[in-house]
Amino acid sequence: MNELDAAGITAPDLRAAYTECRRINAHHGRTFFLATRLLPARARPAAHALYGFARMADELVDNPAPGSDPAAALDRVGDLVDVVFDGGTPDDAVLVALADTVRRYDLSRDLFAAFLKSMRMDLSPVEFATFAELGEYVYGSASVIGLQMLPVFGTIGPPADAEPGAIALGEAFQLTNFLRDVGEDLDRGRLYLPLDELAAFGVSRSLLEERRPDPRIRAAMAYFVARTRAVYRRAEAGVPLLRPESRPCVRTALTLYQGILDEIVALDYDILTRRAVVPKSRRLIVAAPALARVTLSRRSRA
Predict the structure, then answer these.
(1) Contact indicator for 172, 231 with CB cutoff of 8 Å
(2) CA 123, CA 196: separation in Å to the nearest integer?
(3) What residues contact residue 185 under an 8 Å CB cut-off, 6+ apart?
(4) What is the full DSSP assignment across 43-95?
């Protein structure tokens, strides 16, 4: 069944809005989009809408149009989010789909406010001294997305019991992004790895900017990879609290994203001049068995 039909989305303008979000997810979110294939059809449009919104805001900050004002663009997005939560109809396809998702799943306004706050933090040079300082940014940029997705995934008990796992899920993915994108972020004037943690290994921002192999950098990156794997373990502990039909999606996403850490190790932590990417073949090897099991289960219930 078409996922829009499964979700009961019938209005032409709404179907078009969700279709645009799905296109954005398929184009930009290779790992997440692959994982969403494992969700029940009725839940996929909401996942696409939430991804589409996050990607739209992120693009305004990371890849602004020449001559544009990213701060003003983010303010406009914030105004449109206010329209959504005030019950109005925004004039943007992604926000139209988001508004429907917000109403269907009763999502909190605070989650979107926290997300936009972190996006605004990226408009000026970014640097954090400690993980405690980094925490607010990570919560707003990533953990809130885990919390937004939680009602879409559904839980077998009180949602509050599953929230720590959802928060850790977003955190794990974001910390992985920070490690994968160190060089790219430096080009944008950003450094998300806490300076105090780097200094413990004798690494400074200026040393990273030299972009050359160094045993101190290798040791620091090995530490950050190990620390991030611990966050993944916290996220994995929350999977059994989700509805059974959502677990394959989340488990697959966790496995695929941890694969980026494996690629970083395979590069001997040389991530300043190279980008760790999980090959498409490996993504398919991971996802295919889960997709086959889910498909067989759905057919047996039909």
Answers:
(1) yes
(2) 23
(3) 126, 178, 191, 192
(4) GHHHHHHHHHHHHHHHHHHHSPPTT--HHHHHHHHHHHHHHHHTT---SSHHH
Give which of 213, 195, 212 is closest to 204, Cα–Cα. 195
pLDDT at 31: 82
Closest to 260 measured CA to CA, from 274, 239, 242: 274
Give CA–CA dist 275/226, Å, rounded. 18
Q: What crossing angle do the helices spanning 159-180 and 144-153 adopt, rounded to 10°? A: 130
Q: Identify whether the C-beta of residue 262 lies closer than 8 Å to the C-beta of residue 173.
A: no
Q: Give 175: exposed, middle or buried? Use CB within 10 Å, 0-12, 13-18, 19+.
A: buried
Contact 249, 36 (CB under 8 A): yes
Give the pTM: 0.91
d(CA 286, CA 180): 20
Helix segments in 139-279, DSSP class H: 144-153, 159-180, 182-187, 195-199, 205-209, 215-237, 247-266
Task: In whole angstroms, give the CA distance from residue 243 to residue 205.
Answer: 44
Residue-level pLDDT at 69 = 94
User: 216 and 193 in contact (C-beta within 8 Å)?
Assistant: no
The 10s digit of each residue's pLDDT in 242-299 is 999 999 999 999 999 999 999 999 999 999 988 888 776 666 666 566 555 655 555 5
Alpha-carbon distances, residue 111 vs 62, 150, 220, 240 (angstroms): 21, 12, 32, 24
- Write out pLDDT tens, residues 192-202: 999 999 999 99
**Cα(264)–Cα(274) distance, rounded to whole angstroms?**
9
Q: How far is 42 from 192, CA to CA, in rounded Å?
A: 36
